[in-house]
């Protein structure tokens, strides 16, 4: 029987809970970057479409999903705060301007489609369409800047590493967005969406190379950290996934392409987590075990997460099942 005394005595079932929560936090971040990532990518591609019907198709494709997908950003922030409060406090206090920028971009991305549909006036829709694109591009870019700064322990908001990681993440969202739009709106969207996806994949690989080059100079361990077997394996896997994505997208195997984009996203976040560990806040040298909360609340959080996260997963299974399949021309945002 589980009692308060037993929960305070040691980790639940003897599990390495600090490491498990470290992995869980980054898994939640990767889930957000993939699920909301294809929404961001669709918003970027929105700027390259020529007709109103094509733009309406993009809005209809992401309409049922984008606000639900943002739940994972809240879950990520909540998990970081609950499990590693010193890291949360340090990161968000150092980069509060970035946080406001990210929130502003997310607000703009959410508000713009609603306003876009309020009036069928060319000037009105052109302005809000541009706002939708701006929010869709700025959100992943600023998130990438934040992640890059977090990894190298930067105390300034704008750094070379952050800017390069921001570009890398933005391109990756376009990769996901092209696959998602091909899956949902193949009949209503031009073949150029496939071209945008393959071009973004090539750009993403180049950006990854640039990111690794800068990290080799910026990280304390330099090239030795990047040449570890785990990092080399993840990078090679990303290259293979990028090739598989391109082939699948050109063959209109949209679900396979989207799966490859998901794996690339989780792989990118895994590289960041692996390079950072055992630190959770490299700027202060705070380690995972040094920042974790005490045993009792950690055990209680673990029990709560084991009960709640499956419910969240079920919700998303129901959501995506209810709106599965290609959209029809009659559907609107």
Automatic annotation (TrEMBL):
Any Pfam family hit: Cyt_bd_oxida_II
Transmembrane found in the keyword field: yes
Keyword RNA-binding: no
InterPro entries: Cyt-d_oxidase_su2
Recorded topology in the membrane: Multi-pass membrane protein
GO biological process, one term: aerobic electron transport chain
Predominant subcellular localization, coarse grouping: membrane
Transmembrane intervals: 20-49, 70-89, 95-112, 132-152, 158-181, 193-217, 223-245, 257-280, 300-323
Cell location: Cell membrane
Any single Gene Ontology cellular-component annotation: plasma membrane
Molecular function GO labels: electron transfer activity; oxidoreductase activity, acting on diphenols and related substances as donors, oxygen as acceptor
Keywords in alphabetical order: Cell membrane, Membrane, Transmembrane, Transmembrane helix
PANTHER family from the UniProt entry: CYTOCHROME BD2 SUBUNIT II (PTHR43141:SF4)
Protein name: Cytochrome bd-I ubiquinol oxidase subunit 2 apoprotein
Originating organism: Haloarcula quadrata
